[in-house]
Specification:
Elements lengths: L11 H10 L16 E4 L5 E3 L1 H16 L7 E5 L2 H14 L2 E4 L20 E4 L6 H9 L4 E5 L10 E4 L5 H19 L20 H25 L30 H29 L1
Parallel strand pairs: 3-4, 3-5, 5-6, 6-7
Antiparallel strand pairs: 1-2
Amino acid sequence: MSGNLDVLQMKEDDVLKFLAAGTHLGGTNMDFQMEHYTYKRKSDGVYIINLRRTWEKLLLAARAIVAIENPADVCVISSRNTGQRAVLKFASATGATTFHGRFTPGTFTNQIQAAFREPRLLIVTDPRADHQPLTEASYVNIPTIALCNTDSPLRYVDIAIPCNNKGHHSVGLMWWMLSREVLRMRGTISREHPWEVMPDLYFYRDPEEIEKEEQAEAERAVGKEEFQGEWTAPAAEFTQPEVVDWSEGMAVPSVPIQQFSAGKDSEDVVSGSTMLRLGFSFLTDALGSIF
């Protein structure tokens, strides 16, 4: 469906995203109508989906969506939890009408109920789980698009996009890819620059998993506070010492200055030298007597 145009060819980055999300991994069973969408079968019995055919069908589905003049006439449905968040994000990005959760029977056929709708295009996440809207769409001639696994029935499905519609990463990535291609074909975003919206926003998150993450963060914060409390001590208060002027209120004793005469000093020096000579001679005599 790309018409051998380089612009519409699948890029390496897209292939890496498909492989990381497990889009190429099908089921262990295969419907006979999905046989030409598979590449081969692994030793463990899991079928490998041909990503080239996935990309071609993705472009065909995007062209069918862009052909609808009023985006609100496109109805997207996901009864499974793994696709409800992705469906809401797709509707927010493209302006489509969404039905997440349980589909009320008679929405497309019973005109007297309040939820009656007349869409021009229907997109479902799983043909097996969303069989009721597909059946009603066949009654009122509504074209349908579906994300199909290797074991999905293709009854009442006009455009089947082969992919892994069981994993929440694969489902979120497929809706993100479809949203991006629709916006590119409408001219809302350019193919020259990557789309700033991350695929993570389309992934389903289990409420129990979110609650466990919040509890783990709370326990980590409490442990950090306790650790800081054990090792940190309150800072001691520092008071500026008072400076006392020592010159105030202190009596300075008066010491009389004694006068020394020069003659007495010279006599002391002479007597000291005499004593030194006598001590040296005594030490010499003592050493001579020993040796």
